[in-house]
Each structure stands twice: as structure tokens, then as C-alpha cells.
């Protein structure tokens, strides 16, 4: 069973660990958000691509919740001695190698897709990882901060300023003139099931859907598209979706998250604590599945993946 | 006494440690070779600027002979796991912070001179460090390698290929259309003495002299210019000058090194082991001083600096 997924960072990483236990990893394609990619001190950093890679490569630091295990921060600590304001994005020493490698390849003319595949190969990731686009797309936020209106890169909002600013609007700069990376549309068209990972619908999946062609490709596969809510009990399991979803005009509930994907979903998975919302989702013509969505380990992630796949694809109707 | 120096890497670093003991560091200006600057994985690396900075900032690793003390190489070792061919330039984790900082400043529009000053300030360097130019100049070598002719960046020749190739020619790409960094010409015109450090005349001082205006500025100050031979007993104390000087058509002796600076020198310092060459240097109209030039510590470097300064400037004639 060929499965294509749309993925952001941590929620996606956890889920994909389970998915590659449910089906052979070689049958999995992951289309990853690159809207929060950022050029940091001359290096190309791809936070979501790296999260997914580190999760699937089993080098992710689950305890810290980001970056690599057994990481050190000598370079960043030293950079902080140069200029505290410059060291807000904690680049680990091992993690730096990823960025050096990627930046080197890009400088030599490789595409982001090629660099992504090379990084994944180094960590033995058997699933196919594709950036949503080879082109630069930036998720940017207009925020109110101390009476001023600031225009921030997503990472500046989220990491540098710890999501403390009131968000006025969000946009995916460059998306309208971008193209999907090679293989992205085919991976959607050719999969037996398409899974929207339990990622932030606005900051993670939103940028992917903003790349021309991807939304239409998904809509054409609607019966085979299943999404998993990253909103449980009216709050995100991780991240800041609760601050961004209202800006997008949707409520911060498992039903509101489904509304972000209007016209794209054949099925939607919500947590047992949100069971009361199932009827609302069903009423929109989306088959709503209810299960335990809290992925405390790879086994529970695998169960969730199997459940999600059971709602779409050949055997489900 | 205001002193301006022209500097390469290690020999210059050692000498400058002594010079700032002989006169107040605030009175020292160092014009540093940037011909072997290189963009490495997206980062701007300035090997000679960093050497001089680390020496003067007292963080240089004297034992290893390059880089910083108490250094680790986690990022580079990890990069080697990605691609052994990519990790040929050993970037230490602490050293990386310097390159991240510099690259960040340059990306934000700072000049190389501004970035150089900021890096020096972080290490408490009281001497003024100036890159020879804000513009990109690359020392490149044409070499014969396994029957092929390769065009190499200086660092590729020296570090990556360990100077194993036969050098056919050397050039300072971009120098002819470059300008000296702000302050360089004034520092030469306004100094009471100008010192050419015991650096490689072809690979370190040569690029500086290739920046239009610098050679003329020195020639105009000839009586006050003193150089120190980095060639002792017919071989360089460090580096690969013995391989590059023949390409420039000069013999690998303390006299040959002086010949590289024809028309620029008021005085020239050679080691006691080369005393027999003094008459040859004197015969070219350059006052030749003979002393112990082996800088085993800061005290011997200071003695060498005092000796060199005694040959030029107000008190010497």
C-alpha cells in the first residue's frame, strides 16, 4: 500500500514513526513543509525536514522535544558570547553538520529536494522525503508587539520571541509563484492513501497547501485523504496552533482543524476526548473516526496509523 | 610609535604577540591577507584574519599550530559522516562560531572590515585589524596533478591536497579590480614604521601587495619599511613557501624572500644562520639586520620586534 503524507514537525515525526511500522517505509512518501526554512548565518536550515528526518532516522531527542540526541551546543554557546541576540536559534553541533552539508550541496547547485534526499539517506531513512517545493517560500506573520506592528519570519515569531506577540495575519510569501518539488504531485496522484499528519494546519500543512497544484491534487483524491487532528481537547498537543487558528478564522477544536481542510478530506481522525465532535465532522461529509491519538511511543503511533489508514483506501468502503 | 604591519597567518601571529609587548597594542595596525578566504558550506572563512585574531586574543592553539585552544570538532566529525570529501577543512565547534558570526554580519550588509573589527573586539584584541580589502580576492593555483592540470583555491591546494601537487602558476583573482579596505592606505602613510611580518611572501604578503595602491603606498615609505624573513636556513619555518617561491622566480633563501619585496624595503631581518647572506641583501640597498628570528615564545618574539623596529623609523638613521 503506497501512502503519501503531508507533514510538519514534531506531530508528524511521531506519527511517521508509527506509519513505517504499519507499512514498509519504502512505500511511504512524506511531503514536508519548508515554509519555516530560514537562512541562519549563511546556512540553510529546514526545521521541519530535519525534524522528520531525525524522527525517522531515530536520532531525534524525544526528551528535549527538538533536535538530535546526544547533542552539544558549543558553537551556539560561543556565538552567544559574540552576540546574545544572534544565538536565539539553538543550532546543536551535530545539527550544524546537517546545515553545513545541505548548504554546501545547495551552493553547488543541488535542489532542495536533492539535498533533502541526501540528508535522509545519511540517517538511513527508507521513506521518501520530499520538500513541498524546491523554491523559497517563507511563512511570515504580521504581529502586534509593544504597540508596533512587526513582520516576522515564522521562526522569529515562534523561537526568537516565544510566540508572545499577538498575531494579526499570516502569509506564505513566495508560495503563489512556486511549484511543487518534482515528484510531489505524482506522489499524491499515485498513492492509495494520503494522510495529513497531526501537524499545525496553519503553520505546517497550510504552507504545503499554498503551493499551486497541491490543493487541487488532494481534492482530486478526496475519498482517499485522511487527516489526523493535532488539536485534542481544544488545544494543540504541541506548538502554537491555538494562536494561529483563530487568525485563519477557525475555532481551536478538532472540528475546527478539519475545517482548515474543507473539500480535501475523505476522513478525519479525532481523539476520544473529542468524541462529541464526531457528528459535526460527519455532517460535513467527512467520515469521522474516533480513537486514542496520543502517541506516547512508536506502538501507539503505529496503532493510530493503522486506524487512519483503515478509514480510507481500498478496504475501507 | 605607530606601527603598521602586513600579515599572513602563523608567522605573523607569533610576531604580533611580540610586537604588542614592544609597543602599546593600540598603536599597532595589522593589514591581513584575505586571499585565502573561502566560502565553506555557505560560511565565510577568513583563515589568516582568524589566525591573527586568535593569536592576539590569546586563544590560539600553539600546540596544534592552528585554530583555537580547547577546541572540539563535533560538527566537522559529523559532517565527515555525511560526506568525507566535504569535511577536509577542519572547522572546530568554537571556530565555527566565528564563521557563523562573520557570515551573519556579512549577510546583513556589513563589510569584511566591519566584521573583522567585531570579531577582534570579541577576543579583546586592542590592535587594529584590517582586511587588505573588503572585496573578494582569491589566491588560486594552477597545479599539475596526476597528469591533469587543476585550478585550485589556495586552501584546496594547501589543506585539502596537502600541498602535494606541483604548482605551475599562482594568481590573485579579483585583485586587479579591488580596492584596499578603508584605512589601509592611511595606516601605511601614517605609520612611523611598517613591518612585513615573517609570512609567506607569495601566498600571504603577495596578495596584499596585489591590491592596487598598497604597493605604491609602501614604496613611498620605503625607508621606514622593514621585513622579516620567514625563510631560515633555506626553508620556511612553517607553511609551503619553498614550493611557491620558485614559481614566483625567486630562490628559497632569506635573500630570495627579500627579492620578493624589491623596491619596498628599507631594512630586512634575517636569522643568524643566514648571516652569510647579509652582504647580498646590503648590496641591493637594503639595510640587512641579523638576529635570532626563531620565536619560541612571546619574549623572543618581542626581542625580534624590537630589533626590527630599531632598523627603521626615527631613531635608526
Give the arrangement of secondary structure elements.
The structure is a homodimer of 317-residue chains.
Chain A: E1 3-7, H1 10-22, E2 28-32, E3 38-40, E4 43-45, H2 47-56, H3 74-82, H4 93-107, H5 112-122, E5 128-131, E6 138-145, E7 148-153, H6 154-160, E8 166-173, H7 184-190, E9 193-196, H8 201-209, H9 214-219, E10 225-228, E11 231-232, E12 235-236, H10 241-244, H11 254-259, E13 267-271, H12 278-282, E14 287-291, H13 298-310
Parallel strand pairs in A: 1-2, 1-9, 2-5, 9-10, 10-13, 13-14
Antiparallel strand pairs in A: 3-4, 6-7, 6-8, 11-12
Helix pairs in contact in A: 1-2, 1-13, 4-5
pLDDT < 50 runs, ≥5 residues of chain A: none
Q: Hey, which two chains have the biggest interface?
A: A-B, 33 and 31 residues
Radius of gyration over C-alpha positions of chain A, nearest whole angstrom: 19 Å
Order of helices and strands of chain A: EHEEEHHHHEEEHEHEHHEEEHHEHEH
Number of strands of chain A: 14
The structural class of chain A is: alpha/beta
CATH class of the domain at 39-131 in chain A: Mainly Alpha
Amino acid at each position: 500500500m503506497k501512502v503519501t503524507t503531508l507533514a510538519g514537525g514534531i506531530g508528524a515525526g511521531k506519527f511517521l514513526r508509527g506509519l513505517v511500522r504499519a507499512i514498509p517505509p519504502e512505500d511511504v512518501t512524506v511531503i514536508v513543509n519548508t515554509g519555516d526554512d530560514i537562512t541562519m548565518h549563511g546556512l540553510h536550515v529546514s526545521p521541519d525536514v530535519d525534524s522528520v528526518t531525525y524522527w525517522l532516522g531515530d536520532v531525534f531527542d524525544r526528551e528535549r522535544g527538538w533536535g538530535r540526541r546526544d547533542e552539544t551546543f558549543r558553537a551556539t554557546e560561543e556565538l552567544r558570547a559574540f552576540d546574545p541576540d544572534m544565538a536565539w536559534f539553538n543550532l546543536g553541533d551535530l545539527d550544524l553538520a546537517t546545515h553545513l552539508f545541505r548548504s554546501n550541496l545547495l551552493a553547488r547547485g543541488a535542489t532542495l529536494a536533492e539535498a533533502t534526499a541526501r540528508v535522509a539517506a545519511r540517517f538511513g531513512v527508507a521513506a521518501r522525503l520530499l520538500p513541498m517545493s524546491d523554491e523559497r517560500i517563507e511563512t511570515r506573520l504580521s504581529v502586534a508587539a509593544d504597540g508596533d506592528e512587526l513582520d516576522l519570519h515564522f521562526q522569529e515569531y515562534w523561537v526568537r520571541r516565544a510566540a508572545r506577540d499577538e498575531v494579526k495575519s499570516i502569509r506564505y510569501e513566495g508560495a503563489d509563484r512556486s511549484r511543487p518539488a518534482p515528484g510531489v504531485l505524482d506522489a499524491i496522484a499515485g498513492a492509495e492513501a494520503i494522510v495529513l499528519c497531526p501537524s499545525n494546519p496553519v503553520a505546517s500543512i497550510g504552507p504545503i497547501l499554498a503551493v499551486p497544484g497541491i490543493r487541487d491534487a488532494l481534492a482530486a483524491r478526496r475519498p482517499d485523504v485522511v487527516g489526523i487532528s493535532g488539536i485534542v481537547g481544544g488545544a494543540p498537543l504541541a506548538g502554537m496552533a491555538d494562536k494561529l487558528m483563530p487568525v485563519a478564522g477557525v475555532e481551536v477544536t478538532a472540528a475546527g482543524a478539519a475545517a482548515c481542510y474543507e473539500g480535501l478530506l475523505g476522513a478525519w481522525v479525532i481523539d476520544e476526548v473529542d468524541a462529541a465532535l464526531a457528528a459535526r465532522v460527519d455532517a460535513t461529509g467527512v467520515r469521522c473516526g474516533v480513537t486514542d491519538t496520543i502517541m506516547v511511543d512508536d506502538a501507539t503511533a503505529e496503532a493510530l496509523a493503522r486506524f487512519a489508514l483503515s478509514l480510507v483506501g481500498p478496504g475501507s468502503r
